[in-house]
Write a structure and sequence with these properties.
alpha/beta, Rossmann fold, Pantoate--beta-alanine Ligase, Chain: A,domain 2, binds pantoate
Length: 287
Amino acid sequence: MRTTESVEEVRELVAAARRDSRRIGCVPTMGALHRGHTNLIRSAVEDCQLVVVTLFVNSPQFDDPDDFHRYPRPLEDDLATCQELGVDVVFAPDDQTVYPPGGQTTIDVGPLGQIFEGHHRPDHFLGVATVVVKLLNITTPDVAYFGHKDFQQQLVIRRLCRDLHLPVEIVTCPTVRDPDGLALSSRNVLLASDQRIVATSLFRALERAEAGLNNGEGDLQAIRRKMRDELESTPGLDVDYATIVDAGTLEETDEVTKSMVAIVAGSVGGVRLIDNLPLNTESAPRP
Ligand code: PAF
């Protein structure tokens, strides 16, 4: 496994693999790798002959400086995980490499980046879209892997690849959960044990949405109220949103469609958490 901070070195390794007609996969991450990430990496290793994992904590996508500073950065553990999983190249650049002094260009994905996460975290998707375009331009993969847990993020990335004609296939891998339902997130290590219990309410709200639809309830407003009741009755949880949306557009429709997803977000002790649940097969992660 090669670990590098250098754009030129990544480009050379990728160019050599491309000359050998190897399929190139990229797994962009901010490190603090958990089982959600290892699933992405395993998929990449299975599908591709050269796998590049990027480790970069991207400050512009953090709206809260405290969140950025306390974001976990266990570099040695992450490198060991990548090595164990058979990653070929780890690209772990510093800030100056990704954002050379004087750089002014950003990527704005428009309205899709301004709702839900974008509403609660202004400029978050500007930061995500800009760094993802940079990382895809540097690693030039055939395919890139993202987690379904960041549901809006993967939609934003699919949209920007389409809009900007980026020749990369986007694969979304399913959310991984702990036995209590909590979706794996790099931020979970910041939760004290009592806060962790509070956080499981997010998954229960999603289950309420699923149960409502499975029971044939057609009143989406009533189901949304039940989701919010679950969260608002949990002391210690600050709710940002809890709703059911169209899985392609994130619009809150009143009609039950074949492609819907329940989405929730909130904070526990200042740690922001998001989760979602596809409510039928058409909104499940695409292979
Ligand atoms: O999902 C993440 O870890 C980050 O948002 C990403 C896609 C690596 C961009 O920094």
